[in-house]
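--- STAGE predict ---
source: upstream dedup step, 1 unique chain passed
mode: sequence only
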Amino acid sequence: MQPIRRLPLRFGQRVGLAIWAALSATSVGALERVPGSDPLDRDAAWGDPCSLTIGYFNICSGALWEWGDFPPESRFGVWLQRRYRDGDGPACDYGWPGTISSTWLYLAGASPAGYGFTGSVGLFAADDHGCPQGAALAEQPFLPAVTGWQLFEWDEVYVPNSFAVVYSTGPGQLFNPMRVATDQASAIAPDGKPACGSCFPVDRPAHSYLWGTVSSPACPGQPFDDGTCSVELVHDTIGFVLVRIDAPVSVEATSWGGLKALYR
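--- STAGE serialize ---
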């Protein structure tokens, strides 16, 4: 799967994310990609798996890839892990209950209703290779009907330490105009070097995958890759982790500011 479209993007509020440059599409394969500009306002601890918001993408280069032309019933999404982080203490460690309240997927292109493009999005347990396991812990319809951030709300679904957010496109046989976005490893970072190795490590673990189709799931999945390094979907997962009462965390540390450090 290859990205096929480039454009600069300006990130505003979560409901905004306005495209400010003209699109110039060049088809090079089954999928699409995009460079963007002006990074999203995120804290420095992007991608750390033990805090309130889990987001593995990094756009310090200001560039995105746009991916599209998904076959019917394609499965893609993000594999997430909760594990110990130095400084947080054991409140984040191993198997303590965590819940998911919402997920956000950025769409660079939308699909109309009425053409069989409605699929599903689900939360799944995942194995150590990021493969979704068993039946969905929770599931809801997925119609990529808007361009920009699309919100999926969950009723505080309990998830294990290793879990996946899996999006499935609908069975419609017509060309699906949906496009998703990833960061861009080959873009030039502010220091003049490629983003892969500057904005994020060359050996950054992959967390965004294509898992085949509904009728023919693939495991292990195929990472999104732009030919330089693996790239990550512009996707956020919002949740909470419960703090053990014997954990060395003060009452003050469990306030909103402290809680943000517990789940990423």
